[in-house]
Design a protein that fits this description.
Blueprint (H helix, E strand, L loop, with lengths): L11 H13 L4 E4 L10 H7 L8 E6 L7 E3 L2 E2 H8 L3 E5 L5 H8 L4 H14 L3 E8 L8 H10 L3 E6 L17 H12 L3 E2 L10 E4 L6 E5 L15 E2 L4 E3 L8 E2 L1 H5 L4 H13 L23
Parallel strand pairs: 1-2, 2-5, 5-6, 6-7, 7-10
Antiparallel strand pairs: 3-4, 8-9, 9-10, 11-12, 12-13
Length: about 300
């Protein structure tokens, strides 16, 4: 784990000011991500301030799930605390149901905590819970069907995500990359032809399908193989060190912390924000030998 000096990280107050600026410009949806956001001190207090901002009507959280079942106060889990703070939707990473494989992928033996975290999230009644599975040939390609059964038994949305070149250590290759096309073919060999749900959308680029004969929805996110992946993207990412990134798969990032700490007015920050929006590329660079200059945990999933 790499830690930045405190002075190089946006304070919660600074982050809330940027969210206010964004909301005044029309942003209505916020997702708190990481790394693992729940490890940051006083994170719940920060999250609780976001729904109070005029214009923000959707608040989500992406997490590895390991802390959701932790008891924060007597009889109250982290999941319950987050729900009470206004979090409406939760995305939880779950790449495998195999404890040993989970430890190999993450480097930590926290599989039991993730399972407990999922149960805790279900118990408090978030509006929506999605499980995210990154497809990894040779590691979890035998887990697709068990994961579908796991999600179906709990009435959760499961999404399969193509591996993207967002790691500074692991290079995509035929040995580790599995496309959503191949995953869909494997799933259909078990369940039959999936039924496209073209009218169902969430806040991201996933394409959703229903498994025939059962009211279960699964999604596919294919950043590498879907040539139309970027067409409807309207996301911006704010990193913890104050960089606005208009695209996950691009080197472009713009330091909003500098003018913020130099005393910029709200109007000046709005102009900065809009300039970043104008620079949003038409498509990502993942298919152009992209080599990330930041780890995914430093950008925000």
């Amino acid at each position: 784990q790499e830690w930045l000096p405190r002075e190089e990280i946006l304070t919660f107050e600074e982050t809330l000011r940027i969210i206010c600026i964004a909301a005044e410009l029309g942003v209505s949806k916020v997702r708190v991500t990481g790394g693992e956001p729940l490890t940051r001190r006083d994170i719940v207090h920060f999250i609780a301030q976001i729904p109070k901002i005029s214009g923000i009507n959707s608040l989500g959280l992406s997490t590895n799930g390991t802390l959701l079942a932790r008891q924060i106060t007597s009889g109250k889990t982290m999941a319950k605390t987050l729900r009470d703070a206004g979090v409406q939707s939760v995305n939880i990473s779950l790449d495998t149901l195999d404890r040993e494989v989970y430890s190999q992928i993450t480097g930590r033996d926290f599989h039991a905590q993730v399972r407990e975290g999922i149960d805790a999230a279900i118990a408090v009644g978030f509006d929506q819970i999605k499980l995210n599975t990154v497809l990894m040939r040779g590691r979890n390609d035998d887990q697709l069907i068990p994961l579908i059964e796991f999600a179906g038994a709990r009435d959760l949305i499961l999404r399969f995500i193509e591996m993207m070149p967002v790691s500074t250590t692991e290079v995509l290759s035929e040995d580790n990359f599995m496309s959503i096309i191949e995953a869909k073919r494997l799933i259909e060999s078990v369940y039959g032809s999936l039924i496209a749900e073209t009218e169902f959308r969430t806040n991201g680029p996933a394409a959703y399908y229903e498994i025939p004969g059962r009211k279960q929805r699964i999604g596919f996110i294919g950043a590498m193989t879907n040539l139309h992946f970027c067409e409807n993207c309207n996301k911006l990412r704010l990193t913890c060190d104050g960089k606005l990134r208009p695209c996950l798969g691009s080197y472009l990032e713009f330091d909003i912390m500098k003018p913020l700490r130099a005393g910029a007015s709200d109007e000046e920050l709005k102009r900065f924000f809009l300039d970043v929006v104008d620079r949003k590329p038409r498509e990502h660079d993942f298919r152009n030998n992209y080599q990330p200059n930041r780890k995914m945990i430093a950008i925000g999933g």
